[in-house]
Prior knowledge:
Shape: extended
Order of helices and strands: HHHHHHHHHHHHEEHHHHHHHHHHH
Distance between the termini: 112 Å
Largest sheet: 2 strands, antiparallel
Strand content: under 5%
Amino acid sequence: MMKEDAESLRRRRRRRLNKPSTAVTDAATPPSSLERSADDDGVAQHDHKRLRPNTASRRMRETDGAGAGVVDEQAERRLAEQQRQQQRLAPKVPKRSSLLVMKASYDVHSVNRCSPLSSEAPPQDFRGLYNLAGITLVVGNFRLVVENLRKYGWLIEFPDVHDWRSWPRTWPVLTCTASLIAFPIIAWLIERIACRTGTQPAQRLPRLLVAWMHVVNCAACFFVPVWVIFRTDAAILPAITLLMSCIVVSLKLISFAHVANDLRRDAFALYRRLDGESDNSNGGQPKRRLGRKRKASSDDGRVSNSNDSSADSDPDAATLPNYSFDGTGSLSHIMYFVAAPTLCYQLVYPRTPRVRMRFVVRRVAEMLFCIGLMLFLVKQYVEPTVQNTLRWLDEHPHATGYNKYAYLLERIFKLAIPNGCVWLLMFYALFHAHLNLLAELLRFGDRRFYDAWWNATTLDEYWRKWNLPVHNWLVRHLYAPLLRHGWSKTAGMVAVFLFSAVLHEVLLSVPMQRLRLHAFFGIFGQIPLIWLTRTIVKRYAKPVWGNVCFWTAFLVFGQPLIVLFYAHDFVREQQNY
Length: 577
């Protein structure tokens, strides 16, 4: 009995599915507008049935077995035909010829639709809104530029190159900047002397002595420019240029000394092993010395052992590092490393096949444009804002409470936008245009100078991505050696931030010739903010909040406060002087 009921139920459902649909017949003969308007009450219910095409087929698949495949295909074809008919029945904008004969009873609303800005709407094209946002941004900033020029006038003054009064303060700085090339040459000579000694401990220079020679050379490269700046009372811009150059060269010398020490130690160990095997096989023949035979260096910085017959017969000698009497590479390779856009020394760098002059011209144009726009923003926006802030503080020395802090907060917000624009232009001009220009002229292949730091969700992620040359140097020559000596990761991170904070403070305090420690605490004080941004990302599991905290802490409050602090100290020193 149950089998007969199930079979009869299956037959009735098949008969119902095979019956021609009213929607199809209605679609074949579309009703007139009067007939459609007369049945307004049943339109919603009829459309609701047509908008659920897969319900019957799903139930049929659940009840029927494997023998209902043909019926499934027929039902799906009918439902697809119903959907196509429904799309054809959708209201369309009549053509001009149809508008002439369109009646007032024409149905405008015949299907269920949603608004384009609704959450259930399909993806929309917001190109026009993006254009509106761009036009609004341009018009608003152009209005601010016009207002600034009306209020302050043209404040940019170009220096007079014929003014010889500034040369006594400038030429020692320029001479010292050009003389920094002597320190890499001294480092190369130190390695040349260390490599000409023998392989036995009694025949070669002690490693500690060679290390101290490199330390003295690096210290001289750093402290001689500092002494020149204090001795000549150099201007701020030339002093910052000299100090940045000496810091870059000092970091390169440290990298060169570390790599040279590793390669020299490996070369001595390998030569010692080969000399021991030679003594056992040759019956006490005299031992070889490192660098006895003449070596030849290739164009890419590698050093090959020419005129060395033992390299062909001895498989271990063929694996010797490319190491010669002139250190870890030729003098030309050292000069290439000094000019290359990297702080990490190695024997071989990836090289591009040629120099593209169009690429060079574009990078030069971008650098000039960014420098000009930075100069305009600093002179027309940053300096007037700082001067007005300091003037207000002088005129209201006894201002306390709400008025003082509200005014300072308004000044910080006003300074945040132009200062942030200057910082972004500096990043593009230095890390993209300048470094890519150097890389193209020197055919330097690895041009990963930065990552997508603007998407950083934590402050430590930002510091890892925004300056990859310095990050690679810190990891290779500071963080990794500390971990090898037993330091924890947290202690290594604190040491890295301490080193970075000292360099930032030196870069700003030495040209001003005053120690204020604003930059030091600004960098070193970011360690608690790193913990805060990490906690926010872990707790809310939304990286967007970490990115918002990063931009707020770094761009809105961090840099404007540092600018105000140093400007305040600099102006006060000038007034007292």
